[in-house]
Amino acid sequence: MPEYYQTRALVKKTKDAKFGEGTIKRGVTGPDQIEVDIKFCGICHTDVHLANDEISMLLPAVYPIVPGHEMAGIVTKVGENVKNFKVGDRVGMGCIVEACLKCSQCKFGDEQLCQTGYTHTYSAPIQYGQLATDTGVTFGGYSEKISIHEHFAVKIPDSYPMEAAGPIFCSGITMFSPLKRCGATAGGQRVGIIGIGGLGQMGIRLAKAMNCEVTAISTSPNKEAKAREIGADHFVVSTDPDAMKKAAKSLDIILDTAAVDHQAIDYFPLLDANGQLVLIGVTIEPHSIPAGALMFNRQSLSGSLIGSMLETQEVIDFCAKHQIIPDTKLVTGDQVEDVYQALRSKNDSIIRYVLDIEKTFK
Ligand SMILES: [Zn+2]
Ligand SMILES: [Zn+2]
């Protein structure tokens, strides 16, 4: 029988309940684990959907639910086998808390592609015993403490503000990983970003810091000022046929973050030969791609989901080096319902809401 300790958390007991302060039980810190006092946890748009069981086709909500996959905290205890962390280290934890660590993908360092599936940070059945809760389902970062296998934590550089780190472990890694895979980290690529919401804004900043030429692509012309302010060199209104024609064959890479139904084929004319379009936004309607459209210009279509642990360390180091710091607004637990309401009504705010854990449980 594993032993547990109690820690306070913001708990939503049922789909219709509101968040309230409660306690949860986590497995005591094991030999491969670090114990972390969580200081800040970003409130992600995914939290809003998952806490209300609106994305059950991807991950069903399991109640009681404690969301949060954008954590930053301080190590307070290390297990006897822990090699990379010591007490007092500033650490971050994101969307993955477990993977088999034995399959070829895990061994290669792509835990997010684990052949038997990684375990999401909350609302997911624990599969590999690398962490524990009394319910057997993961609890996220809206809580005071977590004990986690050291493999799934990264170091937050001293120069980086801890309250802003959380979003890097979600939207940051989600954009960094495909940029790296497509060769943008070497610079000099022409990168297009479709959708200028939270993901898109992060993508523009990262690609610009990689010395790429960045084109922001949006259906709404009123996003132009914001896109240029954060580094976009060009702006294309995708509903304007003339603007699309003018931008023909001007891009090497397109990261498509649009989360409303659309057809990726409409954007392929913007790609030069050998261009790649990566799907990052989850949509319902299937994309229809004629073979010839890809064959004639040797173009490709792929998808990407978060990124590996190594890349997660790379992206926080990269953001520290280039001072890419999300604009954050600190909130406390009693404001969570209001924040969810705000995120529901508008998903393109440049502000990331972050839970101040210490203040919440004072
Ligand atoms: Zn997130
Ligand atoms: Zn694996």
Automatic annotation (TrEMBL):
<keyword id="KW-0862">Zinc</keyword>
<comment type="similarity">
    <text>Belongs to the zinc-containing alcohol dehydrogenase family.</text>
</comment>
<protein>
    <recommendedName>
        <fullName>Enoyl reductase (ER) domain-containing protein</fullName>
    </recommendedName>
</protein>
<dbReference type="Pfam" id="PF08240">
    <property type="entry name" value="ADH_N"/>
</dbReference>
<dbReference type="GO" id="GO:0008270">
    <property type="term" value="F:zinc ion binding"/>
</dbReference>
<dbReference type="InterPro" id="IPR011032">
    <property type="entry name" value="GroES-like_sf"/>
</dbReference>
<dbReference type="InterPro" id="IPR013149">
    <property type="entry name" value="ADH-like_C"/>
</dbReference>
<dbReference type="Pfam" id="PF00107">
    <property type="entry name" value="ADH_zinc_N"/>
</dbReference>
<dbReference type="InterPro" id="IPR047109">
    <property type="entry name" value="CAD-like"/>
</dbReference>
<dbReference type="InterPro" id="IPR013154">
    <property type="entry name" value="ADH-like_N"/>
</dbReference>
<feature type="domain" description="Enoyl reductase (ER)">
    <location>
        <begin position="13"/>
        <end position="351"/>
    </location>
</feature>
<keyword id="KW-0560">Oxidoreductase</keyword>
<dbReference type="InterPro" id="IPR020843">
    <property type="entry name" value="ER"/>
</dbReference>
<dbReference type="InterPro" id="IPR002328">
    <property type="entry name" value="ADH_Zn_CS"/>
</dbReference>
<dbReference type="GO" id="GO:0016616">
    <property type="term" value="F:oxidoreductase activity, acting on the CH-OH group of donors, NAD or NADP as acceptor"/>
</dbReference>
<dbReference type="InterPro" id="IPR036291">
    <property type="entry name" value="NAD(P)-bd_dom_sf"/>
</dbReference>
<keyword id="KW-0479">Metal-binding</keyword>
